[in-house]
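Anyone able to model this chain together with heme C?
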Amino acid sequence: MVLNKQRVAGISLLIAASLLLAIGCSDPNEAPGNTPATAPPSDGQIQRAYTMKCSLCHGTDGRLMASKAPDLSLSKLSVEERVALITYGKGTMPPQKGILDDATIRGIAKYIEQFRD
Ligand code: HEC
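re: yes, here you go
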């Protein structure tokens, strides 16, 4: 059998496309194959990032106050102040610069507003 180069290329493309689709499908909130690197983080991604990076000290409702963390429901900081604080950290609160991207940090800064009374 003669190897058909076009056919081989076609199959490789198909494999590459299905791999991309599989990656795109890993987050149920995202449409398959519709997640360019610049896409804003989804609500689910922001919530997961908060759970992983913040709930340890602040709790899922912002009121845990572990490791001397203040009650976020009583916070009076503006969005910009929160973005700066989350980015650079303060005291024992660890900085997220280089760990979370700017869009996710901003998303979390807005997300925690729901903890306020
Ligand atoms: C290791 C524990 C710890 C973790 C993890 C942590 N924080 Fe904090 N957080 C603190 C402490 C302690 C302070 C008080 C800092 C100070 O004023 O010295 C604080 C302060 C804050 C404040 C300011 C509240 C106010 O009005 O004074 C906000 C907002 C905040 N944290 C949000 C977050 C977010 C969002 C995350 C996740 C990205 C996070 N924190 C992760 C311990 C933590």
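The two ends are 73 Å apart (CA to CA).
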